[in-house]
Amino acid sequence: MTPNGTPADSDIQGFRMKPPSAPENPPDFNLCTCVLASGSKGNAIYVSDGSTSILVDAGLSGIEIERRMKSKGLYPENLDAVLVSHEHGDHIQGVGVLSRRFNLPVYMTPKTKTAAAAQLGNIHDFKKFECGAAFKIENLTIHPFSISHDADDPAGFTISLDGTKIGIATDLGIATTVVKEHLKGCALLILEANHDETMLVNGPYPWPLKQRIQSRTGHLSNAASKNLLGAVLHDRLEYVMLAHLSETNNTPQKAISEVGRALTRNRTKLAVALQDESSALIHLK
Fold this sequence. Notes:
This protein is α/β, with parallel strands linked by helices. It is built from nine helices and 14 strands. The longest helix is centred in the middle third of the chain and has 11 residues, at 110-120.
């Protein structure tokens, strides 16, 4: 284990996902996840139950996503789908390439598909979903919910299996009641903590960009992320991964310090997802 409580890479040596068509033995976990990348230069999250494996967003090049997966003992050819949150380039850069290379269906809302069409190119198979309506990808139950961000139809997600639930809420300007309701009861949360408010105000960005980041359709600050975590915290929450940190207006230390104040009476493990390296693979029982 690392000092922040997440499994070290040595904890997962030898882990290999079995092809969905021929699992040899059932895994000893319900869900596992790995944040392959998080930040303004690219985002991708791997989620699997040992049989069904998906990517939530693919905002790096296809080659880089393959490289990062293989560095964790994961195999792109075992993916079943890509799930897209919204059309911004740091979330879809590699979607089209991976879809074509591995014959992957791509799940997104029709508005997102239209907005992303030029960058995606041809995809193997488009699968439509609407925010608020749950659906399944093989074994996994996906519940998309609307978030407040400057995209055409942005979505957050919960991903569930046998009572174990992962919540993903990044790229949101405010934490609405809808967001809070969906994130309750999760075993693992991937939450945005984009900026330190003082660093943003005093930083080098032009004022219009600062306003955009601070707006209701921008990005969540450390303080707002702390408040969101406090609103959904419960005794069975095992992990919180802070995501989409600004490299200019935040630091991992500031994010951990601020958001960690919500965990003073809780044993939840808190970590930061980084831009340049993938997280450990986290298993949830």
